[in-house]
Amino acid sequence: MLKIGDSIPNNPVLDENGNEVRLTDFAGQKLIVYFYPKDNTPGCTNEALDLERVRGELTQAGWKVIGISGDSPASHGGFKLKFNLGFSLLSDPDKALIAAFGAYGEKKNYGKVYLGIIRSTFLIDEQGKVVKVYDKVKTASHGEDVLADIRAGL
Predict the structure, then answer these.
(1) 129 DSSP 8-state letter
(2) Are the C-beta atoms of residues 75 and 97 closer than 8 Å to each other?
(3) Read out DSSP for 66-117?
(4) pTM of the full predicted structure?
(5) Given 33, 44, 146, 147, the catalytic residue
(6) Average pLDDT per run of 10 along the chain, which is 154 residues long?
(7) Domains present along the chain, CATH in parentheses
(8) d(Cα 77, Cα 72) in Å, to the nearest integer?
(9) Is 44 marked active-site?
(10) For a tag on the chain, would you pick the N or C end, based on fewer CB atoms within 10 A?
(11) What are the residues whose beta carbons fall under 8 Å from the beta carbon of 99, sequence distance 6 or more?
(12) Which DSSP helix (H) or strand (E) runs through 130?
């Protein structure tokens, strides 16, 4: 998993409209990049809704929210519309960018071990460097947790 001070990877992904995007396209902006397993699942929906709830305050503080999963652009488009999400959702079906961040790996659920997307969030400065990593995320309060850290100056 990327650590504080690491530069972000530049793998291409697709936005919810099917357009190719690279995180370096956002150079000069502060980013909150969060990785989540799947659109329209309870935990992922809670996390997205909590980030959306505080998005205005995050934006005022100079931060842009971007969600990334392996779902298709069409799935992301439907998810955004269904829950009125005002931030970008990027599609990485081959999980190249997700793996480059270290957000893909072994997971355990009910005693079963499998490979999957590790729910995690990275705060990235204007130069494309990681300034904070959340590798343990509480979905229902994640937006509030990130906002509190940003208000506290990280």
Answers:
(1) B
(2) no
(3) EEEESS-HHHHHHHHHHHT--SEEEE-TT-HHHHHHT-EEEEEETTEEEEEE
(4) 0.96
(5) 44
(6) 97 96 96 98 97 98 98 97 98 97 93 94 97 96 97 90
(7) 13-151 (3.40.30.10)
(8) 9
(9) yes
(10) C
(11) none
(12) strand 130-134
